Amino acid sequence: MSDATKRRRRIVLAMTGASGAPIAVRLLQVMRRDPNVEVHLTISPSGAAVLHQEMGLQLNLRSPDLNALLACVPQWASEPAPEFDEIGPTGDERLHYHQHDDYMTPIASGSFLTDAMVLCPCSGSTLSGIARSAASNLVQRAAEVHLKEHRKLVVVPRETPMSVLQIENMHRLAAAGAVLLPAMPGWYHDVKRIEDLVDFVVARILDQIGLDNGLIQRWKDA
């Protein structure tokens, strides 16, 4: 395939109502830096509530300020907000926003080609809906599409302790082909800041969806 016809890698990113909004926002910001990545973003109402609580960002899900989302950093961050070119209210060719209740949007269909989907953070109710194949919103429908089309689905739960029912739901998804990647940071990569722990999880997600990154010092790297 020539450079002229080669499309960008399409990644669906869904944010739901579990703790861990800083991880999801950082993941979005890192993918935005890659000109060869096209992100399709959807956020559940409970995901928006967590964004407000953990990041101080209040989004109108009918018309979200995507520039504010891309520039958002938590209050504890030691680095300033990243700089990005301004984008329009509905996104651009590399960032598309889909409303959580819009089943007519492209990512609701298996005929729309994507390379992977990341559920970050993934709430228990979202986990349950997908495991039971009982989609009640676009997030769950898009995840079911990735499973039925045998595409990479990375699920990032952030809950502790976990009940037997949650563990059973995770087992069902893993058996169906999903990658379960709990937001459990390692400590072996020369941790100095909270951001290092966030980047550990983001780096592992990016590894799973095949995107190069240099966010962390890897095990045994010089």
Automatic annotation (TrEMBL):
Residues 10-208 form the Flavoprotein domain. Pfam families: Flavoprotein (PF02441). The keyword Repressor does not apply. Transmembrane segments: none annotated. It catalyses: dimethylallyl phosphate + FMNH2 = prenylated FMNH2 + phosphate. It is an enzyme of class 2 (transferase). Keywords: Flavoprotein, FMN, Lyase, Prenyltransferase, Transferase. Its EC number is 2.5.1.129. InterPro entries: Flavin_trans-like (IPR036551), Flavoprotein (IPR003382), UbiX-like (IPR004507). It comes from the Bacteria. FMN binds at residues 17-19, 44, 123-126, 158. GO terms for molecular function: flavin prenyltransferase activity; lyase activity. Dimethylallyl phosphate binds at residues 188, 204. Belongs to the UbiX/PAD1 family. NCBIfam families: ubiX_pad. Flavin prenyltransferase that catalyzes the synthesis of the prenylated FMN cofactor (prenyl-FMN) for 4-hydroxy-3-polyprenylbenzoic acid decarboxylase UbiD. The prenyltransferase is metal-independent and links a dimethylallyl moiety from dimethylallyl monophosphate (DMAP) to the flavin N5 and C6 atoms of FMN. This is Flavin prenyltransferase UbiX. It comes from Rhodopirellula baltica WH47. The lineage of its organism: Bacteria, Pseudomonadati, Planctomycetota, Planctomycetia, Pirellulales.
